[in-house]
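Bench log. Compound arrived from synthesis this morning; before running ITC I wanted a structural hypothesis for how iron/sulfur cluster sits in the protein. Inputs:
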Amino acid sequence: MANREIETLEPFHEAIEEIRQAGGAESGRFCYQCGKCDVYCPWNRVRDFSIRKIIRQATFGLSEIEEEDIWRCTTCGSCPSICPRGVNQIELGVSLRRVATDYGIFPESVRSLRAARGSLTSDGNPLSEDRQRRADWAKGLTVRPYREGMEYLYFVGCYYSYDPRMRKAAVATASLLQQAGVDFGTLGTMESCCGESIRKTGGEEVWKALARENIKTFIDNGVRRLLVSSPHCYHTFVNDYPELMVRFEVVHISSLLAELLAEGRLVANEGHPVRVTYHDPCYLGRHNGIYEAPRQVIERIPGVELVEMPESGAESLCCGGGGGRVWMDTPKGERFSDIRFDQALATGAEVLVTACPYCITNFEESRLGREGESNLKVMDLTELLWAAVSSGEGRIAPSQGGSRGR
Ligand code: SF4
Ligand code: SF4
């Protein structure tokens, strides 16, 4: 937006001041425009995009909050990790989205966010599902309601509770915990979305309301230790909820499974030789430093060979689902998950394993969307392990489609 135009757009004056004052924009002052962030940003593999330019504009309060570009960042964490000036590009981008949200300015491609926001407010999930059906994934299993004194509250998460594809991973998780004799329970219909992704889209008030609701439920039920499947739940419980003056012990399922295998409480059976590759979800790896536990789980399955993709660990290529992008339209040709799927195929692996509902949703989409049937299966870490634990032959069952599209 040019300066002259700003002067004529009265409603934007307040927004401009808010952009200047937004917490994240502060760190933008240190940016010396080296452009390193643009080199690392995965968007520049699929189209023109400059976070450097957005930072520059935000520093002067000149951001184009009506433009689609402020909604692109997947909050993958790559550019903050390499910025020589310590600029917090993610926080800055979220600040702009917060201002756009306050003014109700949404470009066409992100209008679907409104549905997610409405459903989060009315039913505690972003998938337009009935709160009363949140525990349906566990039908037929003997999953107990959480009671004070239990070892873990298994916080299932929205995608694992409702999405037909991800429910299989929730079932595998519960089965593994039961097999290992872990004392756990769930909150059933009392569980609400953790709020991580809506916060990244600028929905600060929705995040706060969800977080307060969950915190009250945790405290009322005497919860001390949370077990989570989604790296996004992990991230917000560990890094964001303490802003509301609470701190719970949080364990990601991959860490617990690695421990249970090491202690011999879970035993993976010898199976047919299979080559797998592991994709590090941004919010498990780069944001929270959990790289080893999922690999330890894979390596403890006899017959499984782990091969790494070229960009793995801290350099992992984002699937494109973070920052609320999982709810937005990404046209074919601009999907990072397609590039990542090709990288996985190039390793010669038969299974692409990961540990995040957004990554699996996007990879299933990449698998189903390509011409010709791909032989590369997509599996959650828990599905891979449960196949080996539950079968005398350690067979790895093919993962089925049925995930939500973008
Ligand atoms: S890497 Fe850091 S200093 Fe360089 S342009 Fe990006 S934000 Fe600015
Ligand atoms: S966090 Fe990731 S997606 Fe967002 S601007 Fe930085 S590199 Fe690009």
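What the model suggests: The chain has 18 helices and eight strands. The radius of gyration is 21 Å.
ITC booked for Thursday regardless.
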